[in-house]
Design a protein that fits this description.
The chain is of the alpha/beta class. It folds into two domains: 334 residues, Zn peptidases (Aminopeptidase, 3-Layer(aba) Sandwich), CATH 3.40.630.10; 82 residues, Immunoglobulin-like (Sandwich). Helix content is 25%, strand content 26%. The chain contains nine helices and 20 strands. A hairpin with a 2-residue loop joins strand 1 and strand 2. It is found in: Secreted.
Length: 446
């Protein structure tokens, strides 16, 4: 796997030999704890509820969405015992009325949520991981027939549960939220409910990793197998208040550098650092062609949110009634999950969440000097609001590169680089003593 190159800044414009950035042993240990046995157990339990359709029973103790969300809450509460009272577990719910679309009766909509509070009272950052709990068959309104939803989206929900199991054992300066959305198949209802809560309560949500179908390796129709690539979908131009931002974006040439796109690059670099034999593939659109997922309500409200999903989709095992036709099995069943591939994709989530939650907050007031015409680039910034900081990485890539190509380290709050801003993009992130990098900040003009 191609590694990002680090250059150590000794004095302005003088650099040491390049080296590969090392892993944080603590995060490597977290990733090693992702268990195929645990993932199989989670998937089999979710499938065992028969259906998890949003309008299925909320009172039956064994079958339906109510039993499923009660089980997820119970898992979260078990993990909360590891946290010395730092994990709050609750069901976010409301009664929604028929909408003339995909809800035809009053429905108790509920999102199981676990909030692992950060240890630094001055650090208000929140990082969220999600999947959707509900499932469906061919008829989106069919709440009665078995809808196992092993991959769609038992895999995303299991990723949330497994991440909570592993990360609840540790302490992080920032807060991590684990949530299983309901109502995705009925119109992203649970994620809209949570996005409204985040907005109304003014949470400092800095990143959402939404996992939707991350365990299948085989395409339908073409029968191609891919168990070494994970797609990350991210918007380019921001949907939120684009009219107010468009002129600045255009003037600085940042059409490919929105917050979601930077988060996707962060996921790629971090995930590939900690998970072997996996390439994180950046997909330059918010979601699959003309389709949507639970990150979209957050994107629409101005938050940095992306979708993680398998490289291949198998439509024989997605949104299908369970049946056999001409000897072919249809339906979203556990037998079609590649658990080794699934484990790697969960490892990406664990590594990214831990790296973000351990990191300092972002540098403040990052600026690029533009008053003088020069082939050097001068950047300056202020220290982050929270977290231990041992230095800063200045990132650089040529304008036609999809990913950052170099990282220059400095302990100063400025840097002068012998590269033209006409030919390259730059950004800054803070880093602590264990190598955990903050999210990326693109400089403004000064």
């Amino acid at each position: 796997m191609k590694k990002l190159i680090l250059s150590i800044l000794l004095v302005p414009a003088v650099f040491s030999a390049q080296q590969v950035i090392s892993k944080d042993a603590e995060i490597a240990n977290y990733v090693s704890q992702v268990s195929t046995d645990s993932l199989k157990s989670h998937i089999n339990k979710l499938v065992g509820f028969g259906t998890r359709h949003t309008m299925s029973s909320v009172t039956d103790p064994k079958r339906g969405i109510g039993a499923a969300r009660t089980w997820v809450l119970r898992k979260f509460k078990d993990y909360a015992k590891n946290t010395d009272g730092r994990m709050e577990v609750f069901l976010q719910n409301q009664i929604i009325q028929p909408d003339g679309k995909r809800i035809d009766k009053p429905t108790d909509l509920g999102n199981p949520v676990a909030i692992l509070s950060g240890t630094d009272p001055n650090d208000k950052r929140i990082f969220m991981i999600s999947g959707h709990l509900d499932s469906r068959v061919s008829d989106v309104m069919n709440a009665k027939d078995n809808a196992p939803g092993a991959n769609d989206d038992g895999s995303g929900t299991a990723a949330v549960i497994e991440s909570a199991r592993i990360l609840s054992k540790s302490k992080f300066p920032a807060t991590i939220i684990f949530v299983a959305f309901s109502g995705e198949e009925q119109g992203l209802l649970g994620s809209k409910m949570m996005a409204e809560k985040v907005k109304n309560e003014n949470w400092q949500l800095e990143a959402l990793l939404n996992n939707d179908m991350i365990s299948n390796n085989l395409t339908s129709e073409t029968n191609l197998i891919n168990a070494h690539q994970l797609r990350v979908f991210s918007e380019g131009l921001p949907q939120y208040e684009l009219d107010k931002k468009a002129q600045k974006i255009r003037s600085l040439g940042l059409e490919n550098d929105g917050d979601a796109r930077q988060l996707a690059r962060y996921i790629k670099e971090t995930g590939e650092r900690y998970v072997d034999n996996l390439q994180v593939k950046l997909i330059y659109r918010n979601d699959r062609f003309l389709r949507g997922g639970d990150h979209s309500p957050f994107v629409e409200r101005g938050y940095s949110a992306v979708r993680l999903t398998e490289y291949n989709e198998n439509f024989d095992h997605q949104h299908q009634d369970i049946r056999k036709e001409n000897g072919k099995q249809y339906g979203d069943l556990p037998e079609f999950i590649d658990f080794d591939y699934f484990k790697k994709n969960v490892g990406v989530n664990v590594s990214v969440l831990a790296n973000l939650a351990k990191s300092p907050s972002k540098p403040e007031n990052v600026k690029m000097e533009v008053k003088e015409l020069t082939n050097y680039t001068l950047l300056s910034w202020e220290k982050p609001k929270s977290g231990e900081v041992t230095g800063y990485y200045v990132l650089m890539r040529e304008t036609d590169s999809p990913v950052w190509q170099k990282k220059f380290f400095t302990k100063e709050t400025f840097i002068k680089l012998p590269y033209s801003k006409d030919n390259c993009f730059f950004a800054v992130q803070a880093v602590n003593s264990t190598g955990n990098e903050s999210l990326i900040v693109i400089p403004g003009a000064k």
